[in-house]
Specification:
The structure is a single chain. The chain is mainly α and 129 residues long. Helices cover 65% and strands 0% of the residues.
Length: 129
């Protein structure tokens, strides 16, 4: 894992920890529906990818294959989309500039990881042509 990848993973889990340890994770009232949708979307993404085939690091696994089934048929990365929806609901209900900043940082981290993953996957595909 490169230093850049390690940094992104550390920031990602730091953002998760921030949300977990500040004002709780699960929101109350009807907003919890959005968190449930986000959770289901993330889990569906993991199941479609098959356990053990995805990587928390942006580097693509050696035997990785492009997925276009399940949620991947409609969303580029349902795991990230689900997590953003899950945590955004928490930010909306317990709004502060700090919480919004951490959510924005998490989104930037996801974009950074996706950019690295795409570049590696494209190189891999071109090498195999």
């Amino acid at each position: 894992m490169s230093n850049r990848s390690l940094t992104l993973v550390v920031f990602q889990f730091s953002c998760f920890a921030f949300f977990i340890f500040t004002n709780g994770l699960i929101v109350g009232n009807y907003w919890v529906i959005f968190q449930i949708i986000g959770f289901i979307l993330s889990v569906w993404g993991v199941l479609a990818m098959k356990l053990g085939n995805f990587n928390v690091q942006p580097e693509v696994k050696i035997n990785a294959q492009f997925k276009s089934v399940g949620p991947y048929k409609y969303i580029r990365n349902p795991m990230y989309a689900g997590l953003i929806l899950f945590f955004a609901t928490s930010v909306i209900l317990n709004y502060s500039y700090l919480r919004l900043s951490v959510l924005i940082l998490l989104i930037i981290v996801f974009f950074g990881k996706d950019k690295i993953r795409r570049a590696i996957f494209i190189r891999k595909v071109w090498r195999n042509l």
